[in-house]
Amino acid sequence: MIGSAVAALRAALGSERARDDIATRALYARDDSAQSCMPVAVLFPHSHIEVQAIVRLARRHGLPLVPRGAGSGNVGGALPVPGSAVISFECMSRILDYRPEDRTITVESGCITAQIDACASSDGLCYPPDPGSSQYCRIGGNLAMNAGGPHALKYGVTRDYVLGLRAVTGTGETLVTGARTSKGVVGYDLTRLLVGSEGTLALITEATLRLIPRPQSRALLRAAFRDGHTACQAVSRIMTRRVTPSAVEFMDSHALAAVRQMGAAQELPPDTQALLMVEMDGDAGGIPEQVAVLSGALQGDGLLQLEEAQDAEQIALLWMARKALSPATKAMAPLKINEDVVVPVSRLPDLLSFIDLLAREEQIRIVSFGHAGNGNLHVNFLVRPEEMDKARAALERLLRQVLLLGGTMSGEHGIGSAKREFVPLELDPVSLALQGNIRKLFDPDRILNPGKLFPDP
Ligand SMILES: Cc1cc2nc3c(=O)[nH]c(=O)nc-3n(C[C@H](O)[C@H](O)[C@H](O)COP(=O)(O)OP(=O)(O)OC[C@H]3O[C@@H](n4cnc5c(N)ncnc54)[C@H](O)[C@@H]3O)c2cc1C
Fold first, then answer.
1. 417 C-alpha to center of ligand 1: Å?
2. Which of 63, 232, 262, 307 could hold 58 in an S-S bridge, CB 3.0 to 4.6 Å?
3. Is 143 within a domain?
């Protein structure tokens, strides 16, 4: 069965673009999660029409398809399941239509995210969503996960910039959603339904994205705190002011130690246990007032030092260190469970207290950092292989507590295969059943990314 499916795909695409040699299969057997599984083949379509042909053949042969961008996802979203083929969008990476006068850009789904922003920058425009992986992740992966980034606080996430999509459903039909205009209200919003659907409803082949003017200037404040609680209380104070920072990033003492090893955030007071990076942007003339307002908000209990980065080089060094934290924590232990829970900003101190309690009671090393302005923390459990059961139990305790605090279990990384068993903790049976029915409409034979996002029915 699988053999005939692969043979049919090879006949349709050619042997270079439908590969089943062991080296290629091994290369696509993993993503940035700790798991791996060999696919039976890896497919490299070059066009929407080829994607459609692949889905139709796969459906006829009952072959599950696992869409893949760059494989930088941390929850096993692009991880093959047994007997599946990976469909990689890396050969569909063209910018199809760039219209600065309409502030739109239409790209193929394999386009690297940073290239979209680079193209827009030539006309003083920008594509704001900036996941830490933006130099290598692909827009199709961002769309499927509704990726965010540090600037989501002011600029929103991927979903906020998508005007329309072209995609192939699980039945092999072409689906065009949305409009190419900045307004449009006809019919249900299938664009927003596909964004964040983790490749389970349709394979996205093209996207029309909204662009905005590029901010002229930026400034960055570095605030050292006595402990995580007082740092998070400062974040709540910031949220009550009339200035929206472009980013508010938090680092606990362990994350801070890693950042210092990278040469950034030196010369902090010795008793610093938490750090906030508060960035603001806009017209050059308005920056001093923003700095004054946000500096005022940062003043308060626990503040040990407040400094403004002096130049673009210092700003870049701090961001470089912040963005390197994710890979750096990976190197700190044999295994890392990387969570990205979100709570209302006012509940961040409660979340930190719980994380401290969890680390003590479960005897697990936990490093936390992230987008505090969104209440979104990356809680990293650093463990040895023999501690995995303990870590999974601790993870469930963390997710339950996050929900009690009025939060959600994932702010940007998604569910993938890693967290799907926990989804019923957050979604009620009515919502789960409706979503299951929606999935059936798009993909009645469940060939698109099975084993992801929801527990098996
Ligand atoms: C160092 C590092 C930093 C990161 N920082 C962030 C961050 O700040 N914010 C954030 O949100 N994430 C972050 N991530 C996670 C990851 O980069 C994002 O989830 C990203 O959106 C994945 O893009 P990708 O191209 O690698 O997709 P993949 O990992 O290949 O796939 C992700 C999901 O999308 C599906 N998919 C891919 N292409 C398509 C398509 N064309 N149609 C339908 N489904 C598709 C896959 O099946 C999978 O379910 C980070 C990861 C790393 C390693």
1. 13
2. 63
3. yes
